[in-house]
Specification:
Largest sheet: 14 strands, antiparallel, barrel
Strand order of the largest sheet: 1-4-5-6-7-8-9-10-11-12-13-14-15-16
Shape: elongated
Order of helices and strands: HHHHHHHHEEEEEHEEEEEEEEEEE
CATH architecture of the largest domain: Beta Barrel
Distance between the termini: 46 Å
Number of helices: 9
Helix content: 25-40%
Structural class: alpha+beta
CATH class of the largest domain: Mainly Beta
CATH superfamily of the largest domain: monomeric porin ompg
Length: 451
């Protein structure tokens, strides 16, 4: 359609939208037509805005902004599938970040109103990514948080890569003393170097809610594995990557209730684990946790759990674990986040190599503001375990496990709200039974959502 015809259509629409008995014809340019359509939509004349948008699209089928106007008008007219289609076409034709921002926002709006809130969250991440200004980005984040709050499904996806000198948790000393008789451990019983990886998805789905409580279906699926280095293959020629693969599936029901003294969360879960492609164990667990505000931004959390693990590869190694925990979260003077935790547990089993008591003390810190585009965090923990009996010593077995990790979230490399996290990890286990002396050092790469 020629520019003259486009202007003629705009004149007719202007007369129609004004609702006047008499009106003088006006000549509008394409930008003026677009502005008129936006104003008509803002004042509630969605039908007229749609006609303007369709005239603009007829003039130029690659007019992304006109397609966005069309999508918005169709949304107001409750023609949601058509609105989504127009917005997706606008996205495909968008030539810059501002156009992509408007298109992504329009796709998200149409999807959310159709009940597809998880997909809407993805498109709002696109809007955040392509926002042309800080104000626009803040609006997209606000919309994202609103849709997330309305979405019954909450998902968390994780992925990590970790080069390490001990991907199998092997011993660090090749010599092992068994009641005074020295043994040399096989290559696969020692630490093997390589690349460890992990993939996982967990989440929950809201089943129902009342004024004081919410009920969720929870789920968790994870896969861990290793790729052995050439040096590890020389050290342990019979070792295979698949022999160290660990898979886990879990499902359960969670209930959160708001009480006068805090929030109580109860969980009931069932899980199954495979190791090396073979059934390893099934488990049933129940837990309760109380979160109580302590004032000045601090929160105390107290929990207890009971888990029954049924070993399918070796029934005598089945166990029952009781655990009690306390955690304190608080904000520092500059807004840094601090967390301290104490966990006590007792594992009961017919297998003396599993039956033990342990205590774990942890401390974590995360900076409130990035420095040079990097947000830092530190976690340290120490765990002591006491095995009353051991097949390797008459005095039982005592372990002391240390772990430290420094994380750096690289905010400047954020994509769709996800940023890479570099983590330097060190773990060491000292035992009076040398077979359990281990040490692991590695640098891992994972991703984390910033919102």
């Amino acid at each position: 359609m020629s520019q003259v015809l486009g202007r003629a259509v705009a004149v007719a629409l202007l007369v129609l939208a004004a609702g006047m008995a008499e009106a003088k014809p006006a000549v509008l340019t394409v930008p003026e037509m677009r502005a008129f359509g936006v104003e008509a939509l803002a004042k509630g004349y969605a039908g007229q805005a749609l006609e303007v948008a369709e005239a603009l699209v007829l003039r130029d089928v690659k007019d992304s902004s006109a397609l966005v106007l069309k999508a918005q008008a169709l949304r107001v007219l409750h023609r949601l599938p058509d609105s989504e289609a127009a917005a997706r076409q606008a996205w495909r034709l968008a030539a810059d970040g501002g156009a992509r921002y408007l298109a992504a926002t329009s796709v998200a709006q149409a999807l959310s109103l159709q009940g597809h809130r998880t997909l809407a969250q993805y498109w709002l991440r696109q809007a955040v990514q392509n926002a042309p200004s800080g104000v626009a980005q803040a609006q997209a984040l606000q919309d994202f948080n609103y849709v997330r709050a309305q979405n019954p499904l909450s998902l968390h996806v994780s992925a990590s890569l970790r080069p390490s000198d001990n991907v199998n948790g092997g011993a660090r000393d090749p010599l092992f003393d068994f009641h005074g008789i020295p043994f040399i451990l096989s290559g696969d019983a020692l630490a093997l170097s390589g690349l460890a990886y992990g993939l996982g998805v967990d989440g929950r789905y809201k089943l129902g809610e009342t004024a004081a409580a919410e009920t969720f279906l929870t789920f968790d699926a994870s896969q861990q594995g290793v790729v052995l280095s050439e040096a590890a293959r020389v050290q342990a020629p019979q070792a295979r990557n698949g022999a160290y693969a660990l898979s886990h599936l879990e499902a359960g029901v969670q209930r959160k209730a708001a009480l006068a003294f805090g929030e109580v969360t109860t969980d009931f879960v069932a899980g199954h684990t495979w190791y090396g492609g073979q059934d390893l164990s099934s488990s049933l667990g129940a837990s309760v946790e109380l979160g109580h505000p302590l004032g000045r931004g601090a929160t105390g959390t107290f929990g207890a759990s009971l888990t029954r693990q049924i070993r399918l590869d070796r029934p005598v190694s089945s166990s029952t674990e009781a655990e009690a925990s306390a955690r304190l979260q608080a904000a520092g003077a500059r807004g840094d986040q601090w967390q301290g935790s104490l966990t006590l547990s007792r594992v009961v089993s017919e297998d003396i190599g599993i039956d033990h008591a342990e205590a774990t003390l942890g401390l974590g810190w995360r900076a409130s503001h990035p420095v040079g585009g990097v947000t830092l965090g530190v976690n340290v923990s120490v765990r002591g375990a006491d095995y009353a009996a051991s097949p390797y010593t008459a005095t039982g077995r005592q372990d002391l496990h240390w772990q430290a990790s420094v994380q750096a979230t690289v905010n400047k490399m954020t994509y769709l709200g996800f940023a890479p996290v570099l983590s330097l990890d060190l773990a060491r286990n000292d035992s009076n039974v040398a077979l359990y002396d281990t040490q692991t050092f590695g640098l891992s790469l994972s991703v984390a959502s910033r919102f």
